[in-house]
């Protein structure tokens, strides 16, 4: 089954953001972050179909994609999202693990907001 162009953009931006961040290429990381957030907002606006697309990405082969999808899915599928973040937080040492740990910590502390700002 062909992947929706918006989902492809989300996946590509998540992968490239992670790669640029690790390489210290901050402008490139910021560019990919902007693409990722735009795709997330558009998926979010699609309601059930967008939510389904994001939860489907919790099975992606790339841990960076799963990290972003889980972070965004906390808003509407907290049980699934937390489970994936917990798996990532138990993974190999690195940025993905640290980000998963921090995301869970901030979520559980009530500090995460899902706004259009």
UniProtKB/TrEMBL annotation:
SUPFAM superfamilies in alphabetical order: ARM repeat
**One Pfam family for this entry, by name?**
DUF2019
Q: What is this protein called?
A: DUF2019 domain-containing protein
Q: Where is the DUF2019 domain?
A: 6-104
């Amino acid at each position: 089954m062909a992947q929706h162009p918006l989902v492809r953009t989300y996946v590509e931006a998540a992968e490239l953001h992670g790669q640029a961040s690790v390489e210290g290429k901050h402008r490139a990381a910021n560019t990919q972050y902007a693409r990722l957030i735009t795709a997330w907002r558009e998926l979010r606006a699609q309601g059930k179909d967008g939510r389904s697309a994001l939860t489907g990405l919790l099975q992606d082969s790339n841990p960076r994609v799963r990290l972003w999808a889980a972070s965004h899915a906390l808003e509407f599928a907290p049980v699934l999202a937390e489970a994936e973040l917990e798996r990532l937080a138990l993974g190999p040492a690195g940025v993905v693990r640290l980000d998963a740990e921090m995301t869970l910590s901030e979520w559980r502390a009530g500090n995460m907001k899902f706004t259009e700002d």
